[in-house]
């Protein structure tokens, strides 16, 4: 294969045939696909060296074999090729040693493998991906040593992950939509060492856009003593990023939060989180009862109105009070905060109660923080949570979105909150 770069010009069938020939050749000659002497290592070396040669040709203005096309010297001088130098770069398949071409004047500045660059960009993305899964710097270093046979120091890994600090700040302060039909405010417990290891709350705000997308608006570290002032600061920050109106804010008994919501957006309705009520119900019951309880509880929060919900709850009470009285007491204590939910159209209720995206997100966050055990400070914990958020977005910009069935809810919101919802045209 004389010009490996030409692979990109092949159609899918030709690429597949080429790949199959490489695999067959490797098997026939007893050569590994990966590893220091593997086929992929050799192919990567050839691709990088060919690309560097093409860059140098463009820089000098003539082909390596066509010296007659060499530009005439200016002021008695003239730039030309000046051999190569050996360099080892870390790639996603392990270390690869390449010969980097040089020019006599030293003005050649390659872009494929930059001067003093020791890692290809894909390696940085791999490190960030592993960090988003909760691996420590030591575990990531051990992974590279075991899988790729490459030595990557913990300091190098830390520097790679620190690169996202500026990106995270930009994400946390990015402009938001003018109006959100619904925002969810949820808390996640993360162990942070502050003198001693404590379980610290980190708050995630998720908004439902007028296009029916769920978007993570931001992540904030709490200190365990949050009140109205803390929440007013958080919500004012969100408002200053462009959010002029929120129709429904869904939260779960956080101190000072309802007052801060209505202070920030006067027309916002504060709704206790039905998802949390349902989730907390199962905390008081043995695992073997969960399916039956869920079936009996569903008629309560899907009732047509408050009267029917109360009747269905009496049936639930009669069945489950002897088994888990604490769950029944919890529902009775929260009843006045739950009832306003029943005033909404069924389509709006579905938006508020649809938990798939939120629960999936929380599961990813919890998996990452559990893998780490605890964090040395808030900044390290926030970075880990942001990396998880970032990994959910294929564009790598932290815009993790989940699209839902939206036309019917949009109509319900437009009628219920008349004049406040402007559908997105994108």
TrEMBL record:
UniProt keyword list: DNA recombination, DNA-binding, Transposable element, Transposition
Region (Disordered): 60-85
The keyword DNA-binding appears for this protein: yes
GO biological-process terms attached to the record: DNA transposition
InterPro entries, per database record: Transposase_mutator
Superkingdom of the organism of origin: Bacteria
Biased composition (Basic and acidic residues): 60-69
GO molecular function: DNA binding; transposase activity
Key word DNA-binding present: yes
UniProt function note: Required for the transposition of the insertion element.
Similarity-based family: Belongs to the transposase mutator family.
Protein name: Mutator family transposase
Organism: Arsenicicoccus cauae
């Amino acid at each position: 294969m004389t010009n490996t770069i030409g692979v990109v010009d092949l159609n899918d069938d030709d690429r597949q045939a080429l790949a199959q020939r490489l695999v067959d050749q490797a098997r026939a000659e007893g050569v590994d696909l990966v590893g220091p002497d593997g086929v992929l290592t050799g192919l990567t070396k050839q691709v990088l060296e060919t690309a560097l040669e093409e860059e140098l040709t463009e820089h000098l203005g003539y082909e390596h074999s066509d010296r007659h096309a060499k530009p005439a010297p200016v002021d008695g001088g003239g730039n030309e090729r000046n051999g190569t130098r050996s360099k080892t770069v870390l790639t996603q398949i392990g270390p690869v040693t390449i010969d980097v071409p040089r020019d006599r004047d030293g003005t050649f500045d390659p872009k494929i493998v930059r001067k003093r660059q020791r890692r290809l960009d894909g390696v940085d993305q791999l490190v960030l991906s592993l960090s988003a899964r909760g691996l420590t710097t030591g575990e990531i270093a051990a992974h590279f040593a075991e899988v790729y046979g490459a030595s990557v120091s913990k300091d190098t890994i830390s520097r790679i992950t620190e690169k996202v600090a500026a990106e995270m700040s930009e994400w946390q302060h990015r402009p938001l939509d003018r109006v959100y039909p619904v925002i969810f405010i949820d808390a996640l417990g993360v162990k942070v060492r502050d003198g001693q290891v404590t379980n610290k709350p980190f708050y995630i705000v998720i908004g439902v856009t007028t296009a029916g997308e769920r978007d993570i608006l931001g992540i904030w570290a709490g200190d365990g003593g949050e009140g109205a002032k803390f929440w007013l600061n958080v919500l004012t920050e969100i408002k200053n990023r462009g959010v002029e109106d929120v129709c429904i804010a869904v939260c779960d008994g956080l101190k000072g939060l309802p007052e801060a919501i209505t202070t920030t957006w006067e027309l916002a309705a504060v709704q206790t989180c039905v998802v949390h009520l349902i989730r907390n119900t199962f905390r008081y019951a043995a695992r073997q009862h969960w399916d039956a309880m869920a079936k009996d509880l569903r008629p309560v929060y899907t009732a047509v109105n408050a009267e029917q919900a109360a009747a269905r709850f009496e049936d639930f009470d009669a069945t489950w009070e002897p088994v888990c009285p604490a769950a029944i007491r919890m529902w009775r204590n929260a009843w006045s905060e739950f009832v306003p939910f029943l005033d909404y159209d069924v389509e709006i209720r579905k938006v508020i109660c649809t938990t798939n995206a939120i629960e999936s997100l929380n599961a990813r966050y919890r998996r990452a923080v559990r893998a780490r055990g605890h964090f040395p400070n808030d900044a390290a914990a926030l970075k880990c949570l942001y990396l998880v958020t970032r990994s959910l977005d294929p564009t790598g910009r932290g815009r993790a979105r989940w699209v839902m069935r939206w036309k019917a809810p949009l109509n319900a919101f437009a009628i219920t909150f008349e004049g406040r919802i402007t559908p997105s045209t994108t």
